């Protein structure tokens, strides 16, 4: 459809008045030039374009010359643009003068192009060709000047073939298609043909270094805004690896990137890719390198899927940013015409070379020629495209601004309507609605969803702007602010860091495709959390280690349950997130959420481990160690999953973690025994290790209170008389058992690829670190009776045998009870307990008045444990039943039944203890220390302190007096 602007007389009074005012200012500036003969033409131009006014106001004689000589009647040709810029650069002697000359030339040529366009003198083809030629010549002549300048200092970049190297500039998008907007940025990619080094300078430099510096200087010349205005905003994000990739790379690296890392949207973008400048052999070589990536040899209908995804992204962006009035991105806009044309290029371009053109109108003509789409559709689509591009240029020509959004103010609306040949804005809107309606209908027919095709869930659709094909800081940050209400900046930074890392990794096409499908789904799930910013970094920390493992990425894409479970568990527990990050194979456990939280029965761990280890050879210790660690990780993940989902209460969680540790410890002992037996034989009369060896668990292991990161406090004893083993290489039994414990320690604590099994602490054995690793039970009993300190008897309260046959367990239980039931002087015992507690508190308690350490501070867990130990050591001589239990809760219950504790005291201690453990447990799940604000648990702490004073007040006073005496 032919479009001509309204006659001046048909313009609104407001526009005419505005134009007259602009004319008066111009007339004053132009004096003493005679401008009266060109008043009507200039006034009309000023009515439609402020850019034309500003350009001619800056150089009035230019307007006079052009109008008086009829220059505007002639199109701006590519040759003319080349010659004018070349002439302007002849006198350039510095980078600053280069920038000034180019900006003056752009304003001069751009004003000529926009004049002809706004006045209805130029066809769309002319405007697109001239605007693109202006960009081409400015970029290429700036490059040539800068390369020559740099060669004077650094030498001539020379390839391995010995030929001079030039930096090729690939124009992308509309520049690549020679259809640039009148006010547009430029998408560029830099490359060069051969690796090599500079020649002719004092210092030889790698070609890569030379061209990176050249690229940086070229971007600065093009991009920087100076007193002379702007030239072109340069966007380099379409280069391989985006912002994280090198600024320039040789052809070989180009080929490698697009073969192994190129993504679907890059195929779409590279359809428009054009090396600026005259054709050369190197250009042909580059085109041949890229062709297999862009165009498949077969008819490639998979392109539809990628284009639909891009369509969804754009639709979400339009909705989120309220871009309905954007004639490029909105429904029925320019982008949809481009999608229709380029979809056919991607699908059939491999088989039909004629489709391998960059210009959209030429592409539509070829589609019509090959009857790929109905003729009427293509003709109308081309006309619609011309209309939309004309309107786009009118929007941009007012102020030389890159915009595709319809104006909101009435004055600008009137100017645009007039430029498009309408007296009323509403008439223009009606005409535009028809055009956009047709384009969108055609787009839906070609690219739209097929019958039965599933739309992504709303959460995924909303999150799509968070993971764009091309990262743009402002747009992604804006999307974060809209989707994440609190700490959106933290969310954005975590996402940006992950984006940068993921684009530096070599994922391969399969992995890259899986990641592109996964991220909107994952981010959609995260954004539905109560505090998404708090959890995103931890969740992405799980994804990062599997970036190069396409199978795991695909697992999360294909299994919505697994993905949902991942987000749930990682947001509930930092410990789970860190475990999954360290051990990605655990992701397999997410496939069946029901099974994941269905923890193993306590009495079934032994059999589960036995079956799990059947897959590992008994002769391969390294694989056995890996298997044990993997089993522990799986079981702990299941326990943690049941924990955070509320399936298991804290006390039961500890039961499971404790039983798991016992079973793994037992396996390690049997494995170590088998190895030593093969080499040394066994002690006389012994066949199995559990007949002669027992392990005492202290602390949390003994008290059935293990946590996720707990170490194991253990002591070994045996029941074998002195003698020798019966193997070919016989050693005495003391050596044998020492080697056995060393081997067990090695199996458990060696840090393999999967980490260590458990950290173990053997220092509670008789005589501590200076004692032998394993003692005879009689020696253990004698030590406890005759040499042990009070604190060692306190530790014995929370001790129980965790390995060995029944007779061994019973033997230890008898000795433990004997020791705990020894008669003691209450005052002396209280004094020792208080002294040890003060020592611990001084060394381990919190020094921060605003913090309460759940374990070490006054009124905390340690006070409760010391109270329980005192009750057992002080009263068991008369009430032996008090020594039966190794756990605090049952000690308090028994003390209450014996009237040692009142009902209130027992309840208060039990409540405080369980409350502290619950809180500490939750903190451990978040990988945080067992410390809380000082304002928490005030009542519980005071109650514990009160009970403490009721038993230890005199001992506290005596300790105070003793400390004063020492001072």
TrEMBL record:
Belongs to the GlnE family. This is Bifunctional glutamine synthetase adenylyltransferase/adenylyl-removing enzyme. HAMAP family: GlnE. One of its GO terms (cellular component) is cytosol. Involved in the regulation of glutamine synthetase GlnA, a key enzyme in the process to assimilate ammonia. When cellular nitrogen levels are high, the C-terminal adenylyl transferase (AT) inactivates GlnA by covalent transfer of an adenylyl group from ATP to specific tyrosine residue of GlnA, thus reducing its activity. Conversely, when nitrogen levels are low, the N-terminal adenylyl removase (AR) activates GlnA by removing the adenylyl group by phosphorolysis, increasing its activity. It is an enzyme of class 2 (transferase). It holds the Pfam family GlnD_UR_UTase. Its cofactor is Mg(2+). Keywords: ATP-binding, Ligase, Magnesium, Multifunctional enzyme, Nucleotide-binding, Nucleotidyltransferase, Transferase. Transmembrane segments: none annotated.
């Amino acid at each position: 459809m032919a479009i001509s602007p309204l006659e001046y007389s048909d313009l609104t009074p407001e526009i005419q008045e505005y134009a007259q005012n602009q004319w008066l200012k111009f007339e004053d500036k132009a004096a003493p030039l005679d401008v009266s003969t060109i008043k009507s033409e200039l006034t009309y131009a000023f009515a439609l374009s402020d850019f034309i006014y500003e350009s001619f106001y800056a150089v009035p004689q230019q307007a006079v010359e052009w109008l008086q000589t009829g220059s505007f009647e002639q199109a701006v040709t590519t040759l003319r643009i080349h010659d004018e810029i070349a002439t302007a650069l002849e006198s350039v002697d510095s980078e600053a003068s280069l920038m000034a000359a180019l900006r003056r030339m752009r304003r001069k040529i751009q004003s000529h192009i926009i004049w002809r366009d706004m006045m209805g003198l130029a066809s769309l083809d002319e405007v697109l060709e001239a605007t693109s030629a202006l960009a081409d010549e400015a970029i290429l002549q700036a490059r040539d000047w800068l390369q020559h300048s740099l060669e004077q200092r650094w030498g001539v970049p020379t390839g391995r073939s010995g030929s001079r190297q030039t930096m090729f500039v690939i124009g992308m998008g509309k520049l690549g298609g020679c259809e640039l907007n009148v006010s547009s940025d430029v998408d560029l990619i830099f490359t060069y043909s051969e690796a090599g080094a500079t020649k002719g300078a004092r210092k030889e430099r790698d070609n890569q270094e030379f061209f990176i510096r050249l690229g940086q200087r070229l971007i600065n010349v093009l991009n920087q805004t100076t007193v002379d205005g702007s030239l072109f905003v340069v966007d380099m994000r379409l280069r391989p690896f985006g912002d994280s990739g090198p600024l320039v790379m040789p052809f070989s690296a180009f080929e490698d990137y697009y073969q192994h890392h190129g993504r679907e949207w890059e195929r779409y973008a590279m359809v428009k890719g054009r090396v600026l400048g005259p054709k050369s052999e190197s250009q042909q070589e580059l085109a041949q390198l890229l062709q297999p990536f862009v165009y498949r040899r077969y008819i490639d209908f998979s392109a539809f899927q990628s284009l639909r995804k891009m369509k969804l992204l754009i639709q979400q962006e339009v909705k989120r940013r309220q871009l309905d009035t954007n004639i490029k991105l909105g429904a029925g806009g320019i982008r949809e015409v481009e999608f229709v044309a380029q979809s056919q290029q991607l699908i059939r371009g491999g088989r039909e070379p004629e489709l391998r053109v960059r210009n959209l109108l030429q592409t539509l003509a070829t589609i019509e020629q090959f009857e790929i789409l109905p003729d009427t559709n293509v003709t109308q689509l081309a006309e619609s495209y011309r209309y939309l591009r004309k309107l786009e240029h009118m929007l941009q020509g007012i102020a030389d601004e890159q915009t595709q959004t319809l104006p909101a103010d009435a004055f600008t609306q009137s100017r645009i309507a007039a430029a498009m040949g309408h007296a009323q804005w509403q008439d223009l809107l009606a005409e535009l609605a028809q055009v956009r309606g047709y384009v969108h209908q055609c787009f839906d027919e070609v690219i739209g969803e097929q019958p039965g095709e599933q739309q992504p869930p709303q959460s995924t659709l909303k999150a799509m702007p968070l993971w764009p094909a091309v990262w743009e800081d402002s747009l992604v940050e804006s999307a974060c602010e809209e989707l994440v209400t609190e700490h959106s900046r933290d969310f954005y930074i975590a996402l940006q860091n992950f984006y940068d890392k993921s684009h530096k990794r070599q994922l391969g096409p399969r992995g890259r495709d899986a990641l592109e499908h996964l991220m909107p789904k994952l981010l959609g799930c995260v954004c539905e959390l109560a505090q998404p910013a708090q959890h995103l970094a931890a969740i992405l920390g799980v994804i990062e280690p599997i970036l190069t493992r396409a199978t795991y990425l695909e697992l999360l894409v294909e299994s919505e349950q697994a993905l949902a479970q991942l987000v749930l568990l990682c947001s509930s527990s930092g410990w789970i997130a860190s475990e999954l990050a360290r051990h990605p194979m655990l992701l397999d456990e997410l496939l069946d959420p029901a099974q994941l939280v269905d923890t193993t029965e306590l009495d079934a761990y032994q059999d589960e481990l036995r079956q799990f280890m059947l897959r590992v050879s008994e002769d391969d210790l390294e694989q056995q160690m890996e298997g044990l660690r993997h089993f522990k990780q799986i079981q702990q993940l299941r326990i943690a999953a049941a924990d955070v989902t509320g399936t298991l209460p804290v006390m039961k969680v500890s039961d499971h973690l404790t039983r798991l540790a016992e079973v793994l410890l037992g396996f390690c002992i049997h494995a170590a025994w088998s190895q030593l037996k093969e080499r040394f034989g066994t002690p006389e009369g012994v066949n199995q290790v559990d007949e002669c060896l027992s392990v005492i668990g202290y602390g949390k292991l003994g008290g059935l209170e293990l946590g996720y990161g707990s170490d194991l406090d253990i002591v070994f004893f045996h029941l074998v008389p002195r003698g020798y083993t019966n193997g070919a290489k016989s050693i005495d039994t003391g050596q044998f058992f020492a080697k056995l414990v060393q081997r067990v320690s090695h199996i458990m604590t060696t840090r393999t690829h999967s980490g260590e099994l458990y950290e173990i602490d053997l220092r509670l054995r008789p005589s501590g670190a200076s004692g032998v690793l394993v003692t005879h039970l009689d020696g253990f009993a004698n030590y406890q009776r005759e040499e042990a300190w009070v604190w060692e008897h306190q530790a014995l309260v929370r001790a129980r045998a965790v390995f060995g046959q029944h007779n061994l367990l019973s033997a230890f239980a008898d000795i433990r009870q004997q020791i705990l039931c020894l008669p003691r002087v209450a005052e002396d015992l209280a004094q020792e307990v208080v002294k040890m507690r003060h020592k611990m508190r001084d060394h381990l308690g919190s020094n921060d008045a605003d913090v309460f350490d759940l374990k070490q501070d006054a009124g905390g867990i340690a006070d409760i444990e010391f109270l329980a130990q005192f009750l057992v050591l002080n009263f068991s001589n008369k009430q032996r039943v008090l020594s039966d239990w190794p756990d605090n809760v049952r000690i308090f219950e028994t003390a209450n039944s014996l009237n040692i504790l009142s009902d209130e005291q027992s309840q208060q201690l039990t409540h405080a203890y369980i409350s502290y453990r619950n809180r500490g447990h939750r903190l451990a799940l978040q990988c945080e220390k067992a410390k809380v604000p000082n304002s928490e648990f005030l009542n519980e702490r005071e109650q514990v302190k009160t009970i403490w004073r009721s038993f230890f007040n005199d001992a506290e006073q005596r300790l105070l007096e003793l400390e004063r005496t020492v001072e």
